[in-house]
Design goal:
Elements (H helix, E strand, L loop, with lengths): L10 H36 L3 H34 L8 H31 L10 H34 L5
């Protein structure tokens, strides 16, 4: 049948590779959800010093970005090994993961990087007047960061849904 991937691995190996696909996406999605819904709001609610809370969130975000990009690449590599088909990398679930990687890289290497430079230049974001050009730029970048993370989270949920559908779940 045209388009059907040739099974080059045993059923057991297929199961292991599929498990790695699901696990890598699940770990990234869970980390992103935890950071966005628990850690970031919690740091700003619990820590009296907003600058310290921002440092905690920034540190955590950079580690999550690195881990997410690694997990996304692992997902795509394992998927291509499992299917031995380029077509599997342009399937909707894989495209979602590829877009997650691109958005995460853009967020880390542009938005987060620039925010860190501004934070260092201001010394204290909290004590920098809201009208200061650095603070205005920082606030715009923060909004962009929230949008990037929200998009990655939504793409992660879409990728998981599409991955489940691929495995023959209820349609």
């Amino acid at each position: 049948m045209a388009g059907t991937p040739v099974l080059l691995y045993s059923d057991g190996m297929q199961t292991i590779l599929r498990t790695i696909e699901f696990s890598s996406l699940s770990l990234w999605l869970g980390a992103d959800a935890f950071l966005s819904l628990v850690l970031a709001p919690g740091a700003f609610a619990v820590l009296a010093d907003r600058d310290a809370a921002g440092l905690v969130v920034g540190y955590s975000l950079s580690r999550m970005h690195a881990g997410g990009m690694i997990l996304g690449i692992l997902f795509l590599v394992v998927r291509s090994l499992r299917t031995r088909s380029f077509a599997s990398l342009v399937a909707p679930a894989a495209l979602c993961v590829a877009l997650m990687i691109l958005l995460t890289a853009a967020s880390q290497f542009t938005v987060s990087h620039r925010m860190a430079l501004l934070r260092r230049d201001m010394v204290s974001v909290q004590n920098t007047p809201a009208t200061d050009v650095r603070r205005v730029e920082f606030n715009k970048l923060h909004q962009a960061s929230v949008i990037y993370e929200g998009a990655v989270l939504l793409l992660g949920f879409a990728a998981m849904f599409l991955l489940v559908r691929e495995t023959g779940g209820p349609r």
